[in-house]
Amino acid sequence: MSYITGVGLTAYGKHPGKSTLDLMSEAATAALADAQLERKDIDGLICGYSTTFPHLMLATVFVEHFGLDPVYAHGVQMGGATGFGMVMLAHHLIAAKVARNILVVAGENRLTGQTRDAAVQTLAQVGHPVYEVPLGPTIPAYYGLVAARYMHEFGTTEADLAELAVLMRRHAGTHPGAQFRDPITVQDVLASKAVAVPLKLLDCCPVSDGGAAFVISRERSNDFAIRIRGSGQAHTHQHVTAAPSLTHFGAAASMQRALAAAGTTMRDARYLGIYDSFTITLTILLEELGFAPRGQAGRLAHAGHFSRDGALPLNTHGGLLSYGHCGCGGAMAHLVETHLQMTGRAGARQVKDASVAMLHGDGGVLSSHVSLILSRE
Q1: 149-196: per-residue pLDDT in tens?
Q2: Where are the domains of the chain?
Q3: Which pLDDT does position 76 carry in this prediction?
Q4: Are 31 and 5 contacting, i.e. CB atoms less than 8 angstroms apart?
């Protein structure tokens, strides 16, 4: 059994002059304070990677920088699934009694710490080095390919995708740390410039600076610890040209493994934290996970189903699409928001019932999947 005892999150956007280590430290300090623990209480560290500070031993570097003395330290690389993958690893390490309090942290100055060309070139490396990268595709191009096929098979429209961008912006409007808070409409999304047809600028997450951290503990250290009930993974491919399908991925298998571990069902979900690097990502994941019928996610969003006061609130901080995306720390904001919702500390964003939360992240081009089930005891 393990608990998320504390969370920490920076605002996402521009943080001029702050390095990867600065952002990680800021988030980690906040998480420790939230958990009511001190640095000496941390005996495990798991950290994500940084494209702007690609040290081969980033976990050990952070141990030195932050003044820790852990019995276990580990760096993890799973693309966008890294944040939830680190939580899953910490959950199992706690169960194995390797450590008592594990700090999970990631951060990156991805917006101010590198040029646009460097960012594009780095992210393009998820492609196959022989069959994809030489042809020049970017990450949006891969997702545009997936979007075109998915829309063809299930009747999803560009307006349906836009509904999810509008929803995420509406949710971000009530969070002071979000990178983008100004309201947008479906027409705004449709009129924004093309990035990788059918995806337009507002279908895509921004590039951000930011950091996030959690403390995963064997025992409660405060009155608002949240239990990790179950976790699961699935890995179907790395390169999109080798994917067994462009419309069915590993999300469902990952979630079913998490549900089995938690001893619960999809019907128990009261709050969702779902990865949303692009509107098509969020569409596919919601539908493959079973939270919406195929081709219906955008229409359910339009009807208010995923709104803060809807039947199944989703990413009430604004998600990657509007809160921001700082690399592998991006989806970690989803879990911070989930923890705040589950403990009744989300302020104006508070939903009626977040007693059971289901989270899902993916890395690459819907390649690596990690699901988490959390509950409030």
Answers
A1: 999 999 999 999 999 999 999 999 999 999 999 999 999 999 999 999
A2: 2-113+207-375
A3: 97
A4: no
Q: Are the CB atoms for 157 and 150 separated by under 8 Å? A: no
Higher pLDDT, 274 or 377: 274
Q: How far apart are CA 38 and CA 292, in angstroms?
A: 42
Type of residue numbered 150: Y
To the question of pTM greater than 0.85 for the whole model, the response is yes
| Confidence class for position 123, pLDDT limits 50, 70, 90 | confident
The answer to whether the CB of 261 falls within 8 A of the CB of 91 is no
Q: How far apart are CA 186 and CA 179, in angstroms?
A: 19
Give the SS3 label for residue 13: strand
How far is residue 141 from each of residues 5, 14, 21, 57, 68, measured CA to CA in Å?
Answer: 39, 25, 31, 32, 41
Q: Which two tokens stand for residue 95?
A: 């169960």
Q: Which amino acid is at 111?
A: L
User: Exposure pattern of 15-53 as b/e (b: 16+ CB <10 Å)?
Assistant: beebbbbbbbbbbbebbbebbebeeeebbbbbbbbbbbb
Helix (H) or strand (E) holding 359, with range, is strand 356-363
| 3-class state of residue 84 by DSSP | helix
| Distance between CA atoms of residues 208 and 47, nearest Å | 18
Cβ–Cβ under 8 Å, residues 373 and 259 = yes
What is the token pair recorded at 187?
């027409």
Residue matched to tokens 């924004």: 192
Confidence of residue 125 (pLDDT cuts 50, 70, 90): confident
Helices (H), the chain: 20-35, 58-66, 82-95, 116-123, 139-154, 158-172, 186-191, 251-262, 279-289, 297-302, 319-322, 332-342
**CATH code, residues 2-113+207-375:** 3.40.47.10
Please give the full DSSP string across 199-251, using - where no structure is assigned.
EEGGGBPPP-EEEEEEEEESS--STT-EEEEEEEEEE--SSGGG-S-SS--SH
Between CA 106 and CA 90 the distance in angstroms is 14
What is the C-alpha R_g of the chain? Answer: 19
